[in-house]
Amino acid sequence: MKIARLSGAFLLALSGVLLTAGPASAHTALESSSPAEGASLAAPPRKIELTFAEPVTLQPDPISVTGPDGAKWTVGTPAVVDAVITAPVTPAGPAGAYTLTYKVVSDDGDKVTAAVHFTLTAPVSASSAAPVSASASAAAPVSAASATPARPTADEIGRGVPAWVWILVAVVVVVAAVVVALRLRRPRP
Predict the structure, then answer these.
(1) First-residue to last-residue Cα distance in the chain
(2) Cα–Cα distance list, 134 to 21, 59, 113, 146 (Å)
(3) Exposed e or buried b for every residue in 37-66, given b needs 16+ CB within 10 A?
(4) What is the DSSP letter of 186?
(5) DSSP helix/strand/coil, 118
(6) DSSP H helical segments within 21-155, as ranges?
(7) How far apart are CA 86 and CA 78, in angstroms?
(8) Which phi and psi (to 5°) does residue 104 adopt?
């Protein structure tokens, strides 16, 4: 009987832990961008700005802009301040649909790659394609720590594990505890 009570207490404690557990962390979300998703622009932007729901770091080659016929824009050195990335750009190409692709590392360590689509209604003129000055790209320098994701600290080791793994572990533990409790309650011949 003592083992049955201990099993019941264990199940009750485990249920309490599972019910009070916080939500699993998700990948960061893009909250806003300049240019905005689906924007139609008469003139190309001089800089890209991406604002996320949480602080991010950059992956290698974090921002690219591609247009019709594979036209690529020159992207200057991106700057990261908490959840905002800015980068000067030198546009090039005809009018048409453009895709801004970004690659970041979210606060939970997961790599996120996504895109923003916009349209230029006029081709890039020579004056708007002039290179971005060095002072403009130096306005918000990227620190070495934000350009390269750091190795996780001891506190962050388990944060990158997907939520489904923890749910599966919890289900297995609960099922095992129920099986043990049921076997202990059976009368022995």
Answers:
(1) 16
(2) 49, 23, 28, 20
(3) eeeebeebbebbebebeebbbbbeebbbbb
(4) S
(5) strand
(6) 134-137, 144-147
(7) 6
(8) -130, 170
Tell me the DSSP string of 59-83.
EEEEEEEE-GGG-B-EE---EEETT
pLDDT in tens, 133-183: 434 444 444 333 333 334 444 333 444 556 777 788 888 888 888 888 888
pLDDT digits (tens, 9 = 90+) for 46-104: 999 999 999 999 999 999 999 998 889 999 999 999 899 999 999 999 999 999 999 99
Describe the chain by its helix, strand, coil percentages, rounded to 5: 30, 30, 40
Give the number of other CB atoms < 10 A from CB of residue 149.
15
